Amino acid sequence: MAGLKDKLYSKIQEWRPRTTRLLKEYGDVKVDDVTISQIIGGMRDIKCLTTDISYLDPMEGIRFRGFTIPEVLEKLPKVPGSEMPYVEGFYYLLLTGDLPTDEDIKEVASEFRKRQEVPLYVIDILRTMPRDTHPMTMLSAAVVAMQRESIFARDYHKLNKMDYWDATYEDSLNLLAKLPQIAAYIYRMKYKGDTIIYPDKDLDMGGNFAHMMGIDTPYDDISRLYFILHSDHESGNVSAHTGHLIASALSDIYYATSGMINGLAGPLHGLANQEVLAWIQDVIHSMDGKIPNEEEMKTFVWNTLKSGKVIPGFGHAVLRKTDPRYTAQREFCLKYLQGDPIFKFVDLLYKVVPPILLEQGKAKNPWPNVDAQSGVIQWYYGVREYDFYTVMFAVGRALGVTANIIWGRALGYPLERPKSLTTEMLEKAAGIV
User: Fold this and answer.
1) Residues annotated catalytic, as ranges
2) Alpha-carbon gap, residue 87 to 204, rounded angstroms
3) Three-state DSSP class for residue 57
4) Is residue 183 part of a domain?
5) 320 is in which domain, residue-wise?
6) Where does residue 303 rank: exposed (0-12), middle (13-18), buried (19+ CB within 10 A)?
């Protein structure tokens, strides 16, 4: 695709001298200190990765290529008749840093449609797996099975290092175009009696996913919003970093994305939205389905905290305000889910939990995060299979991961290889021995 690819190449040519100069002239400049608690505690907050795709600002939330989430949703061209932007246009923004025109989006959408056919052997693999296989296992297996399609793997030995990004770009578009169909196929095969709905080549990525899921509008807008909001979160989270690490060994995009999916499947990463939903449903059950007033909800929250439990969906390791991803979903819910009993609980929690957490004084951030609401929306529109929520998360996250890997190849980022220390070395550094 000439338009996006040419624009991306010109951006890469402009960017390479910046990275080269930093390494050559300023490579010894210190940007961070590392403590023992950071080394043992999961390398949290150590500044040691580079990405221009997104940045997590403590007060503004995620910025995609410098744009806040409200700005992204406002400035990106919308799908005709819809409230949400094209996912294809958002990917253009992630790759280039520029807001796309309508013509740019048409080119990307056309390219995705041309590449969306899933190989039959992938379908065969999915159909031979036991139906009780976790859908994330199915998705990961489908992606890694397509590794035989990799242009980068095929041409690696004859590629110039400076051209690695080109083959990675082609692999990325090929994979991204197929992911919605693979995900929806898994859903319909596993949960809907094997009643498969095939893609409509006249629809955009988000609209097509909703069509293949068999869910009517405005679920198409939910799909667009969901993929955009979950696309990237800097490079240090488990899924993004796993993709980056695997790709740093020059493994192709299929290996890297399958690994990203595996990391996302962990209960400490991608399962939070379903855990929040399950908790809210337990609360509703404990109240016999009655919608409490604010005072009753405050009492329940205090009793929960005093018993040593937490309120899931509130707090964030970096953010110090309400997650803009939550706000974007809340605005949708206020328009479409006003009468939904579960959303009424979500709305009450939004009003009473932050002041209580502030009064309690333990939470650095008492505000709701993205997971406090996303599962509730899926449930409302009939996607009630908890295990599938992370599959949709993975489709969105692939946008950011592939964009980062393309740029990593373009700028020649090397194999990632941090240095380990023994416990005794840390004890010596601490003056213990």
Assistant:
1) 269, 316, 371
2) 8
3) strand
4) no
5) 272-380
6) exposed
Residue 312 lies inside a defined structural domain of this protein: yes
Label residue 178 exposed, middle or buried (CB < 10 Å: 0-12, 13-18, 19+): buried
pTM of the complete model: 0.94
Residues 271 and 387 sit within 8 Å (Cβ to Cβ): no
The count of residues in the chain is 433
Domain count, the chain: 1
- Rounded-to-integer distance, Cα 201 and Cα 367, Å: 41
User: In a 3-state reduction of DSSP, which class is residue 50?
Assistant: coil
Listed in order, strand segments (DSSP E) in 43-135 are 54-57, 61-64, 67-68
- Per DSSP, helices labelled H in 337-430 are 341-360, 371-380, 389-410, 423-429
Tell me the CATH number at 349: 1.10.230.10
Give the span between the Cα atoms of 330 and 373, in whole angstroms.
7
Report if residue 329 sits inside a domain. Answer: yes
**Could you tell me which of 200, 183, 198, 174 has the C-alpha nearest to residue 116?**
174
Question: Is residue 110 situated within a structural domain?
Answer: no
For 145, the token pair is 């099975």
Strand 61-64: give its sheet, edge to edge. 54-57, 61-64, 67-68
Find out whether the peptide bond into 218 is cis, omega within 30 degrees of 0: yes
Contact 223, 207 (CB under 8 A): yes
Report, in angstroms and rounded to the nearest whole number, the Rg of the chain calculated over CA atoms: 22
Tell me which H or E stretch contains 382.
Answer: none
Query: Among candidates 192, 208, 222, which has minimal Cα distance to 117?
Result: 208
Task: Output the tens digit of pLDDT for each of the chain's 433 residues.
Answer: 569 999 999 999 999 999 999 999 999 999 999 999 999 988 888 889 999 999 998 888 999 999 999 999 999 999 999 999 999 999 999 999 999 999 999 999 999 999 999 999 999 999 999 999 999 999 999 999 999 999 999 999 999 999 999 999 999 999 999 999 999 999 999 999 999 999 999 999 999 999 999 999 999 999 999 999 999 999 889 999 999 999 999 999 999 999 999 999 998 888 888 888 888 898 898 898 899 999 999 998 999 899 988 888 887 777 678 889 999 999 999 999 999 999 999 999 999 999 999 898 877 788 888 888 889 999 999 999 999 999 999 999 999 999 999 999 999 999 999 999 999 999 999 999 7
